[in-house]
Amino acid sequence: MKIKVVAKPKKKREYVEQLSSKEYIVSVSEPPVEGRANSAIVKALAAYFKISPSLIILVSGQTSKIKFFEVPDALADFEILPKQKQLL
What's the predicted TM-score (pTM) here? Predict the structure, then answer.
């Protein structure tokens, strides 16, 4: 399944916010230099979905704020409950 991610690098607060079933905002503290922000986004998404970072593939948007990632299809109906958001 392909998901759309709006990247927010160099932020003080790190978080993943789900806008819809296939759209997310990911804020990371890493700067967009030498792929460091992309790696941090992959790690944040992996923690959010509770999967291995190796299962998340950056499809397009290497240097853009809007990125598309490929994640396992089993996460198509993934939805975080309000109590789980506090754990992230």
Answer: 0.83
